[in-house]
Amino acid sequence: MEVTRRDRLALALAVWGVLVSQVFLYPGVADLVTALGGEGDLTGGMLFLVAEFAAFVAFASLWGALSDTLGRRTPLIVAGALGGAASYLTLATLPSLGAPFVVALGVRLVGGAMTIGAFSLAITMLADLTGGNGRNMGAAGIAIGLGAALGSVVGGRLSTFDPLAPLYAAAAVLVAVAILVTTVTDRAPDTTRVKFGTILRRLAAKPVFGIPFAFGFIDRMTAGFFSLVGVFYFRQEFGVDAALAGGILALFFVPFALLQYPMGALSDRIGRFIPVVGGSVLFGLSIVGVGVAPTLLPAAAAMLVVGVFGAMVAPATMALVTDLAEPGERGAALGGFNVFGSLGFLAGFIIGGSVAEVVGYFESFLVVGLAEVAIALVAFRAVRRLDPEQSAQTLSSAD
Predict the structure, then answer these.
(1) What is the DSSP code (8-state) at residue 38?
(2) Is the Cβ–Cβ distance between 147 and 15 less than 8 Å?
(3) How large is the average pLDDT for residues 179-200?
(4) Buried b / exposed e across 131-150, counting CB within 10 Å, b at 16+?
(5) Is there a single domain that holds both residue 51 and residue 135?
(6) Are residues 148 and 265 in the same domain?
(7) Closest CA to 222 of 179, 168, 262, 282
(8) What is residue 170's predicted lDDT score, i.e. its pLDDT?
(9) Residue 2 and residue 79 in one domain
(10) Residues near 220 by beta carbon (within 8 Å), at least 6 away in sequence
């Protein structure tokens, strides 16, 4: 039991580290894009973030299925983390080489392909642990939230010092992640190993995964929206600098992080239905609340509320994926969840950014917030059908 707790902490720190490295870049993305030869406007920032998440979409399930096939996860996480670190250092050298912005986008694609391996498989190793899927995914969720919170604050301050400083910091953190993961016992199931293609086909043959995948898509769309549009919104509408914009993002990410583990544990006891469906409705309405806030102070307070309700949804949704997956397809299942999550991030960047540019910021908050409410209403019965079965499984495992 003590070993499991220690490994849970180490893996949560690994997930945290990947998110810290990623979010370091967000508050000062406009300045970073300019330093890399692009236009430091909303479109330039959108392209820079979309490049990375396009690679997330393409490679998340592939890393997961590969780990299921090999029956090993640790060496793949190390490779992904070191590859991501190398990509950040490469980006930092481009301005001195006079490389055009398109080269930076290409490096972002490669870096995203590597980083998603470290991120997705660290979460999968958490899912391999005993102790309750809600608790394990709550540990992942708190790591994600705290990583985003710290990354937004520190990244904003680093970018005011030097637009390239977040790149060096991100590389250092990913190297630390690679070292840390080597101390964790690799518990990937090796008794049910099947071929790579078979795992992907088996996953595709289970449409029930579409339920948590759809929620993951919408939830990550919100995170992507705040990471790009939210930053530009607070900087342009309220005149704050990158450091303060990062601090405001942290108002969302801190409660989102701190409540993940208790909310995940709660979903082990009461089932996934209330946290997933009820949480999504409240999450969506609170997002709209940020957009209607007339001044900076109530908008910042609304960000806190968004974080609280977001924490209800995230760990229960990831736990539902783990509930539904067989041990030998867990890596591919969570990889698939991260594919849809990355698509959600892309949607948050593209849809949120496009609506904000064409129509306005308020309308973009309305679109994203009501999407959260809509998915809860559409999938209401589907989640309720799954919930009694999953609650029974949780109770029997606790016995």
Answers:
(1) S
(2) yes
(3) 68
(4) bbbbbbbbbbbbbbbbbbbb
(5) yes
(6) no
(7) 282
(8) 95
(9) yes
(10) 340, 341, 342, 343, 344, 345, 348
Residues 6+ apart with CB under 8 A from 6: none
Domain that holds residue 370: 194-389
Give the chain's end-to-end CA distance (angstroms, integer): 16
What phi and psi, each to the nearest 5 degrees, are found at residue 355? -65, -40
Measured in residues, the chain has a length of 399
Query: Which H, E and C letters describe 164-228, residue by residue?
Result: CHHHHHHHHHHHHHHHHHCCCCCCCCCCCCCCHHHHHHHHHCCHHHHHHHHHHHHHHHHHHHHHH
**Lowest pLDDT segment from 222-236, 292-306, 366-380:** 222-236
Considering 169, 186, 203, which residue would you say is the last residue of a domain?
A: 186
- Indicate whether 299 belongs to any domain: yes
| 3-state class (DSSP) for residue 82 | helix
Give the model confidence (pLDDT) of 28-54 as tens digits.
Answer: 888 899 999 988 787 888 889 888 888
End position of a domain, from candidates 162, 186, 210: 186
Q: Please classify residue 13 by burial: count the beta carbons closer than 10 Å to its beta carbon, then call 0-12 exposed, 13-18 middle and 19+ buried.
A: buried
Residues 98, 172, single domain; the answer is yes
pLDDT tens string 291-338: 999 899 999 999 999 989 988 888 888 888 878 877 666 666 777 787
Contact 329, 196 (CB under 8 A): no
- Cβ neighbours of residue 53 closer than 8 Å, sequence gap 6 or more: 112, 224, 342, 343, 345, 346, 349
Confirm if 302 and 293 have CB atoms less than 8 A apart: yes
pLDDT digits (tens, 9 = 90+) for 270-286: 888 888 999 999 999 99
Arithmetic mean of pLDDT, 79-95: 96
Do 199 and 174 share a structural domain? no
Distance CA 291, CA 284 (A): 11
How many separate domains does the chain show? Answer: 2
- Rounded to an integer, what distance in angstroms lies between the CA atom of residue 287 and that of residue 285? 5
Instruction: List b or e across 91-127, with b for residues whose CB sees 16 or more CB atoms inside 10 angstroms.
Output: bbebeeeebebebbbebbbbbbbbbbbbbbbbbbbbb
